[in-house]
Amino acid sequence: MVTRPFCVKILTVPRAENWAVGWDFGAVGQGLALAIGACFARPGERVTHTTGDASFMMNVADFHTAVRHKLPLTVIVFNDNAVGQEKHDLVHKKLNASYADMPEPDFAKLAEGFGAKGFTVRKPEDLGEIGRALAVENGPVLVDVRINGDVELAASWEIAKHLS
Length: 164
What we know:
Number of strands: 6
Helix content: 25-40%
Mean pLDDT: 84
Radius of gyration: 16 Å
Strand content: 15-25%
Shape: globular
Order of helices and strands: EEHEHHEHHEHEH
Oligomer: single chain
Distance between the termini: 32 Å
Strand order of the largest sheet: 3-4-6-5
Largest sheet: 4 strands, parallel
């Protein structure tokens, strides 16, 4: 699993060697490449990558590489239609937070357009889509999870304080 740092608090894996995290704050956008590398390093083993929408868009072409090679990759995109951390930082600095807004495409449809499976979670009733996505055995899968970007995690607030 290649994951976003905030997911470290809630996700588990059966073995330590199945876990990778891009720790540095400046690591935005590197996770998809790490996940694809993990797929090539462990042929046939499914890799799950959690990421933010802006981070995914930085390397969206790499997802096509996963599709072309039929990699066993599941990507879960937490989508707040913004560069979330930067938006929180702008709010704390009392600047125009809309500068960090980034309306995103429908990632599930984008995945399907690339030839992968796509799923969308917009409300709690849709959470079953994650189970359906995780049940896919072959090829890449993407789950577009719409989140409320106004909710600020404690870790985000700590980062914003240090950037002020």
